[in-house]
Amino acid sequence: MVSIKDIARQAGISPSTVSRVVNGKKHVRAAKREAVLKLIEETGYVPNNAARSMVLQRSFTVGIVLADTFNMFQRQLFSFIERPLGSFGYHTRFFFVKFERSSEEECLTRLKAEKLDGIIMIHEIQNPSFYDSVKKLELPLVTATFNQPGFPSIHIHEEDAAHDAVNHLINLGHRKIKMISTDGLSSGTRRTKGFFRALEAAGIKGAEEHVIFVRQYTTEFGMYGMRELLLRKHDFSAVFAATDELAIGAMRVLKDKGIRVPEDVSVVGFDDIDISNYFMPRLTTIRQPLNEIGERTAQILHKYITGGRDAGADMVLPYQLIIRESTCALK
Amino acid sequence: MVSIKDIARQAGISPSTVSRVVNGKKHVRAAKREAVLKLIEETGYVPNNAARSMVLQRSFTVGIVLADTFNMFQRQLFSFIERPLGSFGYHTRFFFVKFERSSEEECLTRLKAEKLDGIIMIHEIQNPSFYDSVKKLELPLVTATFNQPGFPSIHIHEEDAAHDAVNHLINLGHRKIKMISTDGLSSGTRRTKGFFRALEAAGIKGAEEHVIFVRQYTTEFGMYGMRELLLRKHDFSAVFAATDELAIGAMRVLKDKGIRVPEDVSVVGFDDIDISNYFMPRLTTIRQPLNEIGERTAQILHKYITGGRDAGADMVLPYQLIIRESTCALK
DNA sequence: ATGAAAGCGCTAACAT
DNA sequence: ATGTTAGCGCTTTCAT
To answer: Looking at residue A309, what is its pLDDT?
Structure first.
């Protein structure tokens, strides 16, 4: 493997100068710069990252914390984060965390072990002490798709979005509306709040009884949630699922029971993952601007890493209600 | 950050001994080993990877080459590869490649730049010189889900599987069967071969005219493929899609045209991605044992990296035809 | 069984 | 503008 010394020797100069050229520093005579560049081209020299990393005390890698379910939503969001991050010269490293206290703690340990330049969370850790520890480590952290006080966050206004989604149902004439949500995750809590708010504004009582809580945002739990709902009593004409994946699972059960969507039951999701537009029926949902969220997240983290400790910024992006085929007016 | 020197100093011994303990080497008196372990526990010491990497000339990271579409199939497979790889102490780094010559070349450059311990390909590069270059680099490489001569490969027998899928259609009485496939990727070629073989065995002529080739395995291209098929003439009763994603796109178009699946047209996919079982109708498909493929791939690569250059092993895993709701007997 | 010393490839502070 | 030097944290001979 050709090293900086090889280049220096062949160019008849010192490694320092080669380093200056490689890093685009000033104070190098044009002629030498050219010569070095040419040599690099010829030899295919590439700086050794481990070495740079050691002296610079930076790893050039950022950790991405995500749920070990690695569901479609997260996978899509990751794609949108990875690219801009790469353009800033970062690599990404995954940290999967389960929905358990012990897994969260272990995640923190692993996060510490790697010498990360920064952390992006696209899945929230429930234990608040996690964030305290990160703060102590002075590790730049930004959260994407949810708001974490004290850290830069890029997200939409989930409560408002949920409210709009439910309101869409209400405007369609629905009064008996159920929700499949999560109570362990703050995103679930916020979406549930929006649900309650819309119901209350419409004068619909007993909202609390209308929501069923499941543990994770997966199609499996969507099925489970709907089964539970049906077990209690099928007296609803519409369902709001806290995520598209939940909605997809719920629709699966509905279909299997011979209950038609949207004729018998309208369904609204949340997130607008790719597949939602391929479903039959196409899912009505809230679109999160994943592309922009990814881009902003990368930008802000980079700024945070390079520019210093000005945390706390909270960026709220616009969402959009996408009305498709899974909802219709109450007959 | 606590370093090996700190531990050594506190334990009143030399860094060498600490290193021995950390790496589980022999020739350390039990008492000292205990002491060091205790200190490590207390201080939360973790070896600096960059430093180890430099002296060991290993990066502990393996590159994963995948299509920049990062479709559902790849996302799922990645999950199954990442875990076992992690248990061997490797990290993963993504290398997305587009379906273009230039992107493939650039991928090779980036692959070289990183000091990778190994490479896993879950997407094939079309340019054969790519593999020559990797061979020259003496970089351990294993391919997952497709066979690359000269490298360890873990995959199913795609041609046989495709044959079985099509045969299922034939057994159902279908004679007018179309295929949506790819000709740029060898997996597409192999699946197409299976399609031909089944048709020929059944005495169905003009097989070549029955397949439409698209560029990528995405739902979008599935839609495109079906639209083209319909444009030519709707004289088929069944369609075999080279992947589930393609099938999903195809079914979308069918549905939009008011053509029922499976009553009017039976559809078979390939891969059995998670979502296929949630579709309406549930997709009949070929199941690739992703879990096992992922596990084996990680194992074999690890062995390859640590054990030396015994490339060439070719592991063929069993597949399974999963008959669900998207196919039915020809009426 | 243990320590001293060298060196992995690079950058930056300090000379000049 | 350029070179010399030290050192990042670790592992590994080579002594002892």
So the answer is: 62
Give me the pLDDT at residue A311, please: 57
CA–CA distances in Å: residue B19 to residues A50, A94, A276: 19, 27, 53
Assigned token pair, A202: 């419409």
The enclosing domain of A37 has a CATH number of: 1.10.260.40
Count of domains forming chain B = 3
CA distance A213 to A182: 5
- State whether B220 and B124 are in the same domain: no
Tell me A216's DSSP state. Answer: S
* Domain span including residue B37: 4-43
Residue A94 forms beta bridges with which residues?
A: A64
Residues A189, A92 within the same domain: no
pLDDT at position B137: 82
- What are the chain A neighbours of B48 within 8 Å (beta carbons)? 54, 115
CATH number of the structural domain spanning residue A306: 3.40.50.2300
* Unique residue bearing structure tokens 């012990």: A102
> Is B259 within the bounds of a domain?
yes
Residue-wise pLDDT tens digits, B16-73: 999 999 999 988 999 999 999 999 999 989 899 899 999 999 889 999 999 988 999 9
| Closest alpha carbon to B224 in B235, B213, B240 | B213
Q: Does the residue B326 lie in any domain?
A: no
Query: A114: which chain B residues are within 8 Å (Cβ-Cβ)?
Result: 49
D chain positions with any atom within 7 Å of a protein CB: 1-5, 7-13
User: Tens digit of pLDDT for each residue in B172-186?
Assistant: 999 999 999 998 888
Q: What pLDDT is stored for residue B310 in this prediction?
A: 63
The verdict on B184 and B277 lying in the same domain is yes
Name the nearest CA neighbour of B313 among B296, B294, B295, B290: B296
Count CB-CB contacts under 10 A for residue B235: 8
Contact (CB<8Å) A50/B48: no
pLDDT tens digit sequence for A201-222: 999 988 788 999 999 999 999 9
Distances (CA, A) of A67 to A99, B213, B294: 8, 37, 19
Structure tokens at A330: 């109450």
Of A50, A113, A219, the CB nearest to B278: A219
Identify whether residues A232 and A88 lie together within a single domain.
Answer: no
Residue B324 lies in a domain: no
Binned at pLDDT 50, 70 and 90, residue B106 comes out as confident
Instruction: Say how far apart CA B196 and CA B202 lie, in whole Å.
Output: 10
Tell me the one-letter amino acid at A330. L
Pairing of strands B91-97, A238-241: unpaired
Q: Is residue A49 part of a domain?
A: no
Q: Which string of DSSP letters, residue by residue, matches B198-253?
A: HHHHTT---GGGGEEEESSSSHHHHHHHHHHHHHH----SEEEESSHHHHHHHHHH
Chain B nearest CA to A249, separation (Å): 7
Same domain, B148 and B296: yes
